[in-house]
Amino acid sequence: MDPRPIGVFDSGLGGLTAVRQLTAGMPDETIVYFGDTGRVPYGSRSRETIRRYARQDAAFLLSQGVKMVIAACGTVSSVAADLGESLPVPFLGVLAPTAAAAAAATKTGRIGVIGTTATIRSGSYRRALSAIDPALEVFDRDCPLFVPLVENGFLGEDDPIPLLTAERYLAPLKEAGVDTLILGCTHYPLLEPVIRRVMGEGVALVDSGRETALACRRFLLSHDLAAPPEHEGGRRFYVSDRTEGFAGIAQILLGENLDGQVEHIDIESY
Q1: Cis peptide before 160, with omega less than 30 degrees from 0?
Q2: Using 50, 70 and 90 to split pLDDT, how confident is the model at 152?
Q3: Catalytic site residue from 83, 183, 185, 226
Q4: Which residue intervals of 26-145 are DSSP H helices?
Q5: CA distance 28 to 31
Q6: Which of 78, 104, 150, 180 is the most exposed place for a label (fewest CB within 10 A)?
Q7: Distance separating alpha carbons of residues 14 and 33, to the nearest angstrom
Q8: Annotated catalytic residue 185
Q9: Which residue out of 31, 73, 80, 199 is catalytically annotated?
Q10: CB atoms within 10 A of CB 159
Q11: Is residue 186 left, alpha or beta, with left meaning phi > 0 and alpha meaning psi from -120 to 50?
Q12: What are the tens digits of pLDDT across the range 159-216?
């Protein structure tokens, strides 16, 4: 048993979808979350910049005494998957568990992937799915406006802004007849009602945050790293920009008031 916290980082708010699932499945665990709100989005950055940001984010979490680092960020998981090689604690990204879940879910073998520009350009999901089953057909599409929409609170299913954006981005995937769609950025589950409305009920949506949380639970249990049952879990939140905006959106997602519970840090010092 290990009572140390789990460290989770993302470019902004999206990783909270993983935190929500981690808390639901492992209430005894303490979670330290860092959202790099001052430098979001990562998906439009160069490979070198993304890798530098990821190293700084992980360094901050290590300074908090975490037992594991989770990159709840599809961009980092795609562009800096080797980050774990330099860390003294286990590392988990969203790519492998999400690809495995999509391969298990599809009935037709036609899988769609949406993600940031950097994620789609990297071809990471194509390679991961091909390694599982070379017969799978993969159709991918970058959705660069989804992250800014989430970060600015445009989440409503009936809001014309995210709806029109989703219709434009997802049209080629609908035409391709995919039966499974990977939400390859942890921001995207926050737009799930909009995406489901556009894609239709017959398409299975694979939530990268949920699949990563499930993989984390399996890893901790199998390596005897889970917190003891009597341990009082909790959450600590850190951001690199204004705390107010983050707390407001996080309250919608997590269902609790985070005023006064979010702390600003200087990520450039790590």
Answers
A1: no
A2: confident
A3: 185
A4: 47-63, 74-79, 95-105, 117-122, 124-132
A5: 10
A6: 104
A7: 11
A8: yes
A9: 73
A10: 15
A11: alpha
A12: 999 999 999 999 999 999 999 999 999 899 989 999 999 999 999 999 999 999 999 9
